[in-house]
Request: fold
Amino acid sequence: MNRSYKIGWHCFRALFRFYFRWRVCNPERVPKSGPVILACNHASFLDPPLVGADLRRPISYLAAPRSSVFPAGRHSPFLEVIPVDRDGGTGRGLKTILERLERGGAIILFPEGTRTPDGQLQPARSGIGLAVIKSSAPVVPVRVFGTFTAYGKSRLWPRPRRLTVKYGPALGFASQRAEAETCSMPRLKQIYQEVADEIMSAIARLEPEEDNQHD
Reply:
């Protein structure tokens, strides 16, 4: 971590610990080094820093250039906000993702593409499948709990609600990546969506109860 990122990291940890009374489950499932995609459900602007605040490595957070979170992130190096397409899987967004991963970075992607309007999990968009197939990085599913109640779309200010972040076992997608090298374009598009759906299913299977957790 560089100095500015580390300062922000400590500030977010203090916020989540004392204001939101957070719980973290299985952070050891995230590799300590090397490329990794953290695929998380999306309910609030709190999600990106919450996912990264217990990890001892810098995490890149992606946002659409017109997102209200982007102007602050652009001028705050510790937030590591990168301007990308909304689903993070086309155009400049894909190029940025792959460059970061090739350098051994860690990136958070949201399969749903945008924040949930009602607190429920939304269907996955194919963009994350494209990013996964084009890279060789493992995918760690992540689920956050409580962020919609604390700071959903309708909230003007975060409320002090209990937050939990849980990391699942890594997914490899070796067979899909191998098939994608030689399959037809229609099949390739199917693979992108299948990968996205599999990631979203892994997120949905994560439950808040977990033996290996700490405050």
Q: What stands out?
A: The beta strands are 23-25, 36-40, 60-63, 81-83, 106-109, 139-145, 164-167, 213-214. Helices lie at 3-18, 47-52, 70-74, 91-102, 127-134, 147-151, 174-180, 185-205. Residues 68-78 have pLDDT under 50 and may be disordered. The longest strand covers residues 139-145.
